[in-house]
Amino acid sequence: MQKQGGSILAALPIWHTFMSEALKEKTSGSFTRPDPIVVEKPVLRGQYLVTDQTNQVNVHEILYYVEKNNPQGDKPSHPENDPQFYNWENPVIEWAKTNITTELLRTMPSLINQNTPSVDFVSPKNGDYIRLSRTATVQVIAPSSIKKIELYFNDSILESASGDFGTSYTHIFTLKPNRILPQNLLTVKAFDSNNNELQKSIILFE
Questions:
Q1: What is the pTM of this model?
Q2: Cis ω before 71 (30° cut-off from 0)
Q3: Number of domains in the chain
């Protein structure tokens, strides 16, 4: 064995040989595929973005919005009852006081930065089964004209559309992938006239 990572390189084949010998009499198994988890709460989906137009009163750490023992349930009525709440909440509030100075223009944090297009799937939704979906409907909203949208299935482009679509546009794609896996990634990309790009991805099951 030598320095600079040589010990790791020496250990790998030894460990591989050991495991191959230990498992050679074992039968191979498989994991049961779990049911898909569809998350609806925006705070769990990373849907909101804090900007300089977000009021300080709307900035909280996640335990303010989520009950850790029931994360997809209702917002906790007394988040301060969690022993870790103030350990996280106080630093977040201090950060907001320092970094957010503009008065609130909206009642909720912005969905996205308004300099880039907003893209979302109307259908299918995250966690749906692809066998139930023949088309994919996407909605794009932007401050400048949408010029191009593309649909990808597991990183392979399925279809694209180009034109002068204005600042609000809905497009229906045909959903006919060549190869479907047990779990698949469907992605839409949007581009506007200012060369801004945004993408949204969802998971579809076989």
A1: 0.47
A2: no
A3: 2
